[in-house]
Write a structure and sequence with these properties.
single chain; 359 residues; alpha/beta; Spore Coat Polysaccharide Biosynthesis Protein SpsA, Chain A; 11 helices; binds uridine-5'-diphosphate; binds magnesium ion
């Protein structure tokens, strides 16, 4: 795999004064999705800047305000005004969720190394050098593993079950895939971020491994939530399981849908044939009536389903080929994403203090 030119600890000249141009590359971007975290933001930025200044590398912190209804945006604007060029803020008109918030941050960041972390002070910026050291070993994505995890059992137990399932079904053996504290080489987010939707932020490592990137995990300190409340209830696990099914399908059969639907169709049809042979056999050898046997209808239905599955597979292949040949959606630009979801409609506070609407 091609490595980025800029390693996490050299090459980019230390430059603490903020670059004026938003387009200017920086060594490290930190993307922080926040929703109603007014009390945590300033403390988090202080800790982050202390840590990042000590590394002597250029950096930017991109906060994505995911439709906060408290004073989060006021706090963010204050930080932005105090640290122009370093603190950048994207604001959503309403709450769209963590995945769109991360996507918006990824699309705006300029770092060669991109971190994502939660804005509630549960992730510790002092872990940043450990992530960088791991990336320097040649990994493309390093995921945090909260150890020990300081959440109530109502969260840790389902999370353990979920992690076990993801690990078994996807072959991505991480203990804490849902952890928001992660570090990526730029190539990873450029490759995957446009395909994130729904709540797919949980599955970036699965997709990254599928795309051939090297992923690993490190244990990270975890703090109990001090201010505000968790934004995710138990329903996240039900949604996570549905998303897991989706990701499994996408990573296994996205390019070969006919293999999935074809096999399913073939075996369903075959089962239907066997059932009907059984029914006809009973007619021939035991003289049983055919017309009043429910099994006959079961067999017929299975054969119809089988044909339908194969047709679905063929249809999917046609869509895939159209997609690959440059049809609609062959390259999802921010504009086309805008068309689909509308989540680019936000205020963006660039380093020039200009307020401009993206959508
Ligand atoms: N968050 C967000 N949008 C949402 C839900 C959460 O931006 O719809 C942010 C939240 O403010 C926090 C991070 O995502 O910075 C993780 O959320 P939370 O701490 O509630 O998750 P938990 O730690 O309970 O898993
Ligand atoms: Mg949290």
């Amino acid at each position: 795999m091609q490595q980025t030119q800029v390693s996490s600890n050299l090459t980019i000249k230390p430059e603490i004064s903020a670059p004026e141009l938003p387009e200017q590359k920086v060594a490290i971007s930190i993307v922080v999705p926040v929703m109603n975290e007014e009390q945590s933001i300033a403390i988090l930025f202080d800790k982050l800047s202390e840590q990042l200044d000590s590394l002597g590398q250029t950096y930017e912190v991109i906060f994505v305000d995911d439709g906060s209804t408290d004073n989060t945006f006021v706090e963010l604007k204050k930080l932005h005004d105090e640290h122009p060029g370093i603190v950048r803020v994207v604001r959503f008109r309403r709450n769209f969720g963590k995945t769109p918030a991360l996507v918006a941050g990824f699309a705006r960041c300029h770092g060669e190394i991109i971190f994502t972390m939660d804005g509630d002070l549960q992730d510790d910026p002092e872990e940043i050098p450990n992530f960088l050291a791991k990336l320097d070993e040649g990994y493309d994505l390093v995921s945090g593993w909260k150890f020990p995890r300081l959440d109530p059992p109502s969260k840790t137990f389902p999370s353990r079950v979920f992690n076990g399932m993801v690990s078994t079904l996807t072959g991505v053996h991480l203990h804490d895939i849902n952890n928001g504290f992660k570090a990526y080489r730029r190539e990873v987010i450029e490759d995957t971020h446009l395909k994130l939707y729904g709540e797919f932020h949980r599955f970036v490592p699965v997709m990254a491994q599928w795309r051939g990137f090297r992923i690993t995990e490190i244990k990270v300190r975890h703090h109990p939530r001090k201010y505000g409340v968790s934004k995710f209830g138990a329903s996240r696990f039900a949604r996570g399981l549905i998303d897991l099914l989706n990701v499994l399908f996408l990573t296994s059969f996205l390019r070969t849908p006919l293999r999935f639907f074809g096999a399913l169709g073939f075996w369903t049809f075959f089962l239907g044939v066997l059932v009907d042979i059984f029914v006809i056999g009973r007619r021939i050898f035991y003289g049983q009536q055919i017309h009043n046997q429910p099994l006959l209808f079961v067999g017929n239905l299975l054969m119809i389903f089988g044909v339908q599955f194969v047709l679905t597979g063929l249809q999917s292949e046609m869509i895939r080929i159209r997609y690959a040949a440059g049809g609609i959606g062959s390259s999802l630009s921010p504009a086309s994403i805008n068309g689909i979801t509308g989540y680019w409609h936000c205020h963006f506070w660039a380093s020039s203090s200009r307020k401009c609407r993206m959508g």
